[in-house]
Design a protein that fits this description.
mainly alpha, 77% helix
Length: 243
């Protein structure tokens, strides 16, 4: 009897691991396209309402600031501060994840809640202060900080909770993989991509999700102004509810 009891523990542990893997795979399939749309919305809305600041592609702000330094024009400290803000937000999310003791789908759920709360605060702040009225002002800088922090949470979520997932915000990698995967599929022999590369349809779905987010955000910015932040906040709330 003791031998049976001892042998049952690994089998239960293996069953729990298998159940978690299935749950994580299901969550990933439902969640990633939605996160891609959110990233497109946040990046577009931030760029056109907060004074040309990239809130998802944060390193692009370094290029913008450098162009201003060379060609002249209105310099935005928020463009340079986006990178350290992003790094601090990532570190904060890591601390939250570590303190929670959660992993996998349970950690993903927690970080989705954090992202939703940040986007909700951004929406409330934008509706009250209307930062788009003065894109070079302090309110716009504060709103950009919240938007960058929300995207940092999304990046951290993918790395910490869903490490096998491909990016929902950096579209250069998805576009590269889509084109190279298409070329490999067309090749009769001597395919170059490794077997574990993301499938073509995965990269295309992430790319199209981000583009869809940008298109929807464009209409929302024109029609709703600062209320356009309600769309990514609402989608972040839906992401929390996914099971």
């Amino acid at each position: 009897m003791p031998l049976l009891t001892q042998g049952s523990a690994p089998s239960q542990s293996g069953l729990d691991s298998a159940n978690e893997a299935v749950k994580q795979s299901r969550l990933e399939a439902r969640l990633l396209p939605l996160l891609g749309v959110i990233a497109g919305m946040v990046d577009f809305t931030g760029f056109f309402t907060l004074g040309h600041i990239f809130t998802a592609h944060v390193t692009g702000n370094i290029v913008l600031a450098t162009v201003v330094a060379i060609d002249g024009g209105s310099f935005r400290w928020a463009q340079l501060s986006a990178l350290p803000v992003f790094m601090i937000a990532l570190a904060t999310v890591w601390l939250i994840a570590q303190a929670s003791g959660r992993h996998g789908s349970r950690l993903a759920r927690l970080l989705l809640q954090v992202q939703f709360l940040v986007l909700l605060m951004l929406l409330i702040f934008s509706v009250i202060t209307k930062p788009s009225a003065d894109p070079a002002g302090l309110n716009a800088d504060a709103a950009a900080t919240m938007a960058v922090s929300a995207m940092a949470c999304q990046y951290a979520l993918l790395r910490l909770a869903l490490p096998g997932a491909i990016s929902t915000a950096v579209m250069t990698g998805n576009l590269t993989n889509a084109v190279l995967s298409a070329m490999d599929l067309l090749a009769a022999r001597n395919r170059l991509l490794p077997h574990d590369s993301p499938p073509l349809n995965h990269s295309l779905f992430r790319l199209l999700s981000f583009i869809l987010g940008c298109i929807v955000a464009a209409g929302a910015v024109l029609l709703m102004g600062d209320w356009a932040w309600s769309l990514p906040a609402a989608l972040a709330g839906i992401a929390v509810a996914l099971d």
